[in-house]
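Objective 1.3, modelling of assemblies. Example input:
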Amino acid sequence: MLKDKQIIALGERDGISGPAIAACAQAAGAAVAFIATECFV
Amino acid sequence: MDLQSQDAIKRLADQHGKDKLIVLLGAPDPESAEISAETVVLGDPSYAGPLAGAQLGLAVHHVLDPEIRAEVPLDVWEEQIGVMADVLNAEALTAAVAAIRARGAGGN
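Predicted structure (tokens):
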């Protein structure tokens, strides 16, 4: 599913961060197009 | 969702087309996962950002979705996600995002 796709990694501060999601996606063969770690308050 | 993120996602959807993009969420609870998923599938529910009224219909999954986890090498998964996979309710998060995908597929 992830291989050769462009990934938008939308992490959250209280959950899983954007960079952690991006690292997983890259290791699965995807390219990362955007990374953010948001904070819902 | 941040307005800057909405703007970037809108631009990427225009640039790459929706079939090349997958959104992966790291939300800690089903409610925030739903809001983020809804924003990239059906449009910004708060009608405040660039994706208001924009039904992008992007493919979206929570990163803890077993389908995603299965594609990530175990050593990377443990290093990057680690204990959070046990702390968060992967089943509820996966179901919340799947429900929004279904609404998008149904044109509802």
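Chain A is about 25% helix and 35% strand.
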